[in-house]
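Support request, priority: normal
Reporter: lab tech (M.K.)
Component: structure prediction queue

Hi team, I submitted a job for Lichenysin synthetase from Bacillus paralicheniformis yesterday, and the status page still shows it as pending. I've pasted the exact input below so you can check whether something in the sequence is tripping the parser. The sequence length should be 126 residues. Please let me know if I need to resubmit or if it's stuck on your end.
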Amino acid sequence: YIGRIDQQVKIRGFRIELSEIEVQLARLSEVQEAVVTDIEDAYGNKALCGYVVANEQLDTESLARKLAQTLPDYMVPSFWVQLKELPVTANGKVDRRALPQPDVEAQTAEYKAPLTETEQLLADIW
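Reply from support: The job had stalled in the queue. We restarted it manually and it finished. Here are the results:
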């Protein structure tokens, strides 16, 4: 078994076509090129990672907000890597195997303690 070759992945029970996310990223004016892959986060769960090429430093939170306007939440990448250029194969196609792994430790959200009584009640449930 060598996996799917059509760039469809399953994350949190949702089937996701990675090219749909890439198309939406490419429509953003600040993004020159984009590739989306699935990775494992710090907890061993599958997650989406967006690799983007842009002329200037990107605000990934802003990218995520813009994507959330056109895509469901489960299709918005959790991790981001900005590159100067995408690695390509001898055929000129994006070499997904050569993409660097994101720093999942640095991008994993830090714990924020419950601030209100309601938040504490909800936190106690989980």
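The longest strand covers residues 33-40. Residues 18-26 form the longest helix (9 residues). Let us know if anything else looks off. Ticket resolved.
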